[in-house]
Specification:
This protein has helices spanning 27-38, 74-91, 104-114, 133-142, 154-159, 203-210, 226-236, 251-259, 278-285, 299-304, 324-354, and strands spanning 9-12, 17-19, 22-23, 44-48, 61-63, 68-69, 96-99, 119-123, 146-151, 164-166, 189-194, 217-220, 242-245, 261-266, 290-293, 307-310. By secondary structure, the protein is an alpha/beta fold. The strands form three sheets. Strands 5-4-1-7-8-9-10 form a seven-stranded parallel β-sheet. A six-stranded parallel β-sheet has the order 13-12-11-14-15-16, sandwiched between helices.
Length: 358
């Protein structure tokens, strides 16, 4: 059993990136997830720039001075990240610090320069911070001061050559599904996609497939590539069944959109299909089945049959998913998936609080 711990846990995002005035990524979600996971065992603080004031209560925050801004130069943003790191280490001299996966090499530099008695853990979704000679050198300077890595699979964990714990990107705590599920027949859309739109997410191919049908569809998110956005507009032009919203979504729009779809489609390809995806957990935690590519990113969907995985979106029979019995079976399996998350919650608490390796 995990014992109550005197030390604080600090969940830190030293980058706190803001693009065109909007917070991006899943950093708020991860911070809230770790707050929920550990608050019964110890004092937890969320460390982040001023953008975090919009999301978290003052008593839960350890406020850092800066956000990284898309309007600033890369040099200025690097200065801001280093200033945030210096302040963090000054304020947290004897704490447990869990670094989110942002500005990773900069975090290594800060650890090498300023870390002393802190117990440091890092969330790593990939090995990009080791993909060049200079990055590997920077990691080596900090490695001895890092107590462990938190990652989605063994392949990633082993690359860092220090203790690690394998857990999902988010861990279900029960706080994620406070709203009652919307009944099948009351859902606003049959299929949907939500989040940042990139080529490897296969959204264009989804729209091309669904434009040939009469299913109610919503595609909502910001395209990082203007050309991709124009292609989506062209396909959806005069398609009354497709609601195309090419914009950043706030958390309420994002969650309500997911909940109002019978299914969310994740047509991942290329590099995106090979690493973990927090969007999958957002969708499943909100009780919506996933339809998507049979790939590493959708491993949980395939394992628990919490939706349907395919090899080619053109080959699937979409009408099958309009059978409420099929939908109900997927929803039942989502409940089993959530229950299985209990072991991950216990595992991450033991790893961070007691140093037990997974």
């Amino acid at each position: 059993m995990v014992q109550i711990m005197a030390k604080r846990i600090i969940v830190a995002d030293i980058c706190s990136m803001v693009i065109d005035g909007n917070a991006v990524g899943h950093y708020f979600t991860v911070a809230q997830n770790y707050l929920d996971l550990f608050k019964s065992a110890c004092n937890v603080k969320i460390a982040g720039g001023p953008v975090y004031k919009d999301k978290f209560k003052e008593e839960d925050l350890l406020l850092l001075d800066y956000n990284a801004e898309s309007s600033c130069s890369s040099i200025e943003n690097k200065r801001r990240e280093l200033c945030n790191l210096r302040k963090l280490f000054d304020l947290c001299k004897d704490d447990v610090i869990v670094f989110q996966s942002s500005a990773v090499s900069t975090v290594y530099i800060g650890i090498a320069l300023w870390a002393k008695k802190q117990d440091i853990y890092m969330i790593q979704y990939n090995t990009m911070s080791l993909d060049s000679t200079i990055k590997r050198f920077i990691y080596k300077t900090a490695k001895s001061k890092i107590k462990g890595m938190i990652c989605p699979d063994d392949l990633i964990g082993r690359e860092y050559q220090i203790p690690y714990s394998v857990v999902t990107d988010y861990i279900y705590t029960g706080s994620q599904n406070e709203k009652a599920l919307i009944p099948f027949e009351s859902k606003e859309y049959d299929f949907g996609f939500f989040g940042i739109i990139t080529k490897d997410k296969g959204v264009l191919e989804v729209v091309q497939r669904l434009a040939k049908t009469n299913y109610r569809v919503v595609i909502a998110g910001y395209p990082v590539d203007a050309e991709l956005g124009e292609k989506l507009k062209n396909v959806c032009q005069n398609k009354k069944n497709i609601n195309l919203k090419l914009q950043y979504l706030n958390e309420e729009e994002y969650v309500n959109g997911i909940r109002n779809c019978k299914y969310c489609i994740l047509n991942y390809s290329g590099a995106y299909s090979e690493h973990s995806s927090g969007v999958i957990y957002d969708i499943l935690f909100n009780g919506t089945p996933v339809i998507g590519t049979d790939c590493k990113a959708l491993k949980a969907v395939a394992e628990f049959k919490a939706g349907y995985v395919y090899h080619n979106i053109e080959d699937i029979d979409l009408e099958t998913f309009m059978d409420e019995k099929v939908y109900d079976a997927y929803c039942h399996n989502i409940l089993l998936f959530k229950k299985a998350q209990d072991s991950y919650a216990q595992q991450i608490r033991s790893f961070v609080l007691e140093g037990k390796k997974s």
